[in-house]
Amino acid sequence: MADFLKNILGGNKPADTPVPAKADSDFADFAEAPQPTPLPFQTTAGGLTAGGPVPTARPYTKWYNVHERHSISEFRTEGFILAVIAIICTVHFIGSRLNRAKSKAWAKAHAPLLTSEFAQVGFGGSRVSGDESDKVLKEKSLFEYASYATGRQNVAFMDVKLSLMKRFNPMVLYPDFIIGFLFDSYPMPEDSVGATIYPFDGKEAQIVPGVPGAAERSKDSKSTYDGFVWAVVNKNQMKQLRDERYDVSITFTKDHPKLPIWTTVMSESAEITSALLTEELVDAINKAGDLFDYLIITDQPVEKPKTLDEAVPRKRIFLRYRLPSSNNYEDLLPLFSYFVRLPDQLASVAHFRTEVLRKVKSVREENIKQIQKLAEDEKAEERALERDKAKKAKRDADLNALDAKAQKKYLEKEKEKEMRKAAKKQTVRG
C-alpha cells in the first residue's frame, strides 16, 4: 500500500528515471534478432539501382524462329493452288498472244486488197493505207475480231468476222474438241473468217443520202441484178448448211465437172450456174483447197420466214473459209479478191430469161402463200376466241340477272342442250 501511494504521489524518486520493462516470452525470437543494416548502393549494367529487380537473360524459344516453328510441308495446298494459278495465267497469256498473232497476220495479208478496193476500212472513220494493218481489225474479244469496209461501187458495205479457237482457255477448248469428235452435229473448234457483202442493188440514194448527184446516178445505176440463191459449197459443210439455212435449203445440189470433187453447186437453175461459175472462181477454189467452206449468193433470209415482212428479199453475198495454221494467205487471197469484186460481175451478168425467173419466183410465191395461210389461220383462231369470250360474257350477264330458281332452270336447260349435242355427235360417228 505504501508503494502504491508512493507511485501515485511520486515518492522521493526523480520522474525522468525509466523503469525497465519485462520482456514478453512470446516475442523472445524477435527480441533477440539483430537490427537490419542497409546495403551499400551499387549500379548494374542495366542501369537498375540496388533494391530493384535484377534483369535476367532472354529465354530461348522457337517463337522467334519461323523456320523452326513451321515447315514447307504445311503449305502444300497453298503451293498447289499457286502452281495451278500460275499455269492458268501462263496458258491464258500464251493463248491470247497466239490469237492476236493470227488476227494480225490476216490483217497484214488482206490490208492492201481492202484499202485498194474500199474508201474506208476499219472502224476509225478515216482512210487507212495498206501499211496500217493494225487499224483493219477490231478486237471484240480474245477469240473474235471484226472489220468493216465501205465506199465502193455496187457495194453498200462489207462486214468481216474472224472466229478463232479459245486457246486461252483449255478447259473449254479440249471439251469442244472431244464433243465435236463424238457428235457430228457439234462443230469442231477451228479458226475461220466469215465475210458478208451487202450490195446496193440500185438503192444508192436510200442508203447514201445527201451526196450531190446520188439521185441522178441511182436512176441510171447498173448495180441491180435478179434475185436468186446460188452457192458453191464444201461437201463437208453441205448437210449443216441445209439444216441451218433456209435460203440454201430451197436449192438443189449437183456436182460440176469444173469444180474439185470435194465441192458441189447448190442452185435454183442450171442457167444461173453456167453464168456464175467462171474459170477465175474455179481457179480460186482450187488454190484455197480444203480451207474453203462456201460462197453463197442469196436474196432470201437465213432463217425460215414466219411473217411477210421477214420474207422480203434482201440480197447478200457470203464467204467463209478456215485460216491456215502457217498464216500464209497466198492461196486464199485470190478467193477473197474474187469475192470482193463479185458484185460487179452480178451487176453485169446476173440478168436471166423470164422462164428462169418464173421458176425461181414460184418457190418464193409458194412460201408466201404458206405464210399467208398461217397468218389467216391465226387470225381465225383469234376471232373464234373473241367470239367465245363475248358469248361467255353474255351468258354470265344473263345468268346473274336471274334469281336462284331461274338460274337453276337455266343451267338445267344448258346441260340438256350439251347432252343432246354430245348424243348427236355419237350418232353421226356411229
Automatic annotation (TrEMBL):
Locations listed in the record: Membrane
Gene Ontology MF term list: calcium ion binding
Transmembrane segments: none
Keyword annotations from UniProtKB, A to Z: Membrane, Transmembrane, Transmembrane helix
One of the GO biological process terms: endoplasmic reticulum calcium ion homeostasis
InterPro entries, per database record: CCDC47
Keyword flag Membrane: yes
Protein name (database record): DUF1682 domain protein
Region feature (Disordered): 410-430
Organism, scientific name: Xylaria flabelliformis
Biased composition (Basic and acidic residues): 410-421
Membrane topology designation: Single-pass membrane protein
Assigned GO CC terms: endoplasmic reticulum; membrane
Any matching Pfam family: CCDC47
